[in-house]
Amino acid sequence: MAIKTIKDIDVAGKKVFTRVDFNVPRNEQGAVADDTKIRAALPTITYLLEQGAAVILASHLGRPKGKCKEELRLTAVAEKLQELLKVEVLKSNEVVGPETEALAQKLQPGQVLLLENVRFHPGEEKNDPQLAQAYAKLADLFVSDAFGTAHRAHASNVGVADYLPAAAGMLMQKEIENLTQTLHNAKKPVLAIVGGSKTADKIGVIKNFLKLADIILLGGGMANTFLKAKGYQLGISLVEEDQVDNAAQIMREAADLNVELLLPEDVTVASAIEDTASAETVAADAVPADKMALDIGPQTCARYAELIDKAGTVIWNGPLGVFEVDAFAQGTIAIAKAVAASSAFSLIGGGDVVAAVEKAGVAAQISHLSTGGGATLEFWEGKELPGIAVLEDKKEG
Ligand code: ADP
Ligand code: MG
Questions:
Q1: Which ligand is nearest to the CA of 374?
Q2: CA-wise closest residue to 289 among 337, 236, 331
Q3: How far is Cα 40 from Cα 142, in angstroms, rounded to an integer?
Q4: Percent above pLDDT 90 for the chain
Q5: Has residue 234 been placed in a domain?
Q6: Phi and psi at residue 55, in whole multiples of 5°?
Q7: Residue nearest to atom 21 of ligand 1 (CA)
Q8: Which residue, judged by its Cα, is nearest atom 14 of ligand 1?
């Protein structure tokens, strides 16, 4: 799939409606708690400004559901962006309307305007063509750098492409290139790691990984459902009973396809998530009736690390334990270190697993940390993402 990028179009003197993903975590005072996503969009914004474009930025923040919510205004985001970009950031207090139109009209090459949280507008998530047209009226070109939203078809990342020439920003391009590399011509052996809490959300990904990967390592709460399918007793662990059949089915398919699907052989258990005092390591088939499996154990880590060391490609979604509590973060940290040390091409995607890898202090040694959660998962499920489809180069079609 060939996509058009900002390098393929002439942006000089143009107004560029640029969809970014500034959906950042905030602290209790409403300030930006983690500016990773804003930093990730800087190369595209800087490039556009240097090329002599005027940049109109649009993003969502949180879930205001089509209504203005004071605490979800992008004011703090604008301040943070201005600080990082070292260029004045003008801000409109509305999504579209007279104020936005006036600001956009006056905007000169080299200037930046940030619209209000696009999800304040009821038309945004409905991909309302009228709203898409209103966005298009502000600019000459559409650039999308919001990979994290690419699995949604909304007005500011999909609809607007009906009315303006579209191209991918640098972050979007990097995400697509790296993810595509894990799906096609990935260096073998391809090793996939899947963790996290919700089995139901991960079944589609594991199914697609059965076709792509030579080895699949499971961990986290999700693995409990698979251990249950093997007939083990899991005490009071998180187990999704309605997914046990799916898990059994996946294990049969793995055997048929000659994919090595590994489950934890030992686990760290405790009587409650915060109860680190009672934490102990037991065999995966010996979880006490009053305890829950909260992390993969050291034996499992050693076995997984050995396979990771020999992998050509590592793809990873979902932490392998309750990494938010130090006592149950050890497995995820050990595996993060193993991935960092391996010479494999490594791609890690998912909000929580990326946070865990950062906590482990090895983020710099990972080939690509994806900024997408749901978008990365859907990409790995083999689905077409609407936010990417609109960037396809139709000429080469
Ligand atoms: P990602 O954001 O990387 O896709 P998920 O959202 O699927 O990951 O899962 C992350 C959550 O899974 C974390 O909050 C973590 O505490 C939880 N988790 C991991 N292992 C377990 C476990 N054994 N029991 C309960 N919850 C777990
Ligand atoms: Mg998550």
A1: 1
A2: 236
A3: 18
A4: 92
A5: yes
A6: -110, 120
A7: 221
A8: 322
Closest among 386, 349, 365, 341 to 174, alpha carbons compared: 349
Contacts of residue 372, defined as CB under 8 A and 6 or more positions apart, other chains included, come to 147, 148, 150, 151, 175, 349, 379
Locate 42 and state its tokens.
């800087």
Same domain for 120 and 195, yes or no, is no
**CATH number where 108 lies:** 3.40.50.1260
Going by CA atoms, what residue is nearest to atom 15 of ligand 1?
A: 322
Residues lining ligand 1, judged by CB closer than 6 Å?
Answer: 195-198, 220-221, 238, 293-294, 317-319, 321-322, 324, 350-353, 373
Q: In the chain, what are the helix, strand and coil shares in percent, each to the nearest 5? A: 40, 15, 40
Orientation of helix 199-212 relative to helix 220-229, angle to 10°? 80
Residue 396 pLDDT greater than 60, yes or no: no
Residue identifier of the C-alpha nearest atom 9 of ligand 1: 196
User: Is the same domain home to 262 and 311?
Assistant: yes
Distance from residue 371's CA to the centre of ligand 1 (Å): 17
* pLDDT tens string 280-318: 999 999 999 999 999 999 999 999 999 999 999 999 999
Per the CB < 8 A criterion, the answer to whether 304 and 217 are in contact is: yes
Counting from 1 in the atom list of ligand 1, the atom nearest the Cα of 324 is 16
In a domain, 367, yes or no: no
Print the domain residue range for 248: 188-343
Task: Judge if 303 and 203 occupy the same domain.
Answer: yes
132 and 243 co-located in one domain: no
Q: Is residue 274 part of a domain?
A: yes
Phi, psi of 222 (to 5 degrees): -60, -35
Query: HSE of 18 in the Cβ direction (CA atoms, 13 Å)?
Result: 33
> In this predicted model, what pLDDT tens digit does every residue of 209-247 receive, in sequence order?
999 999 999 999 999 999 999 999 999 999 999 999 999
What's the half-sphere exposure (Cβ side, CA atoms, 13 Å) at 154?
A: 26
State the Cα–Cα distance between residues 138 and 58, nearest whole angstrom. Answer: 12
Task: Determine the residue type at 342.
Answer: S
How many CA within 13 A on the CB side of residue 210?
Answer: 17
Domain total in the chain: 2
Instruction: Give the C-alpha separation, 313 to 321, whole Å.
Output: 22
Ligand whose nearest atom lies closest to the CA of 351: 1
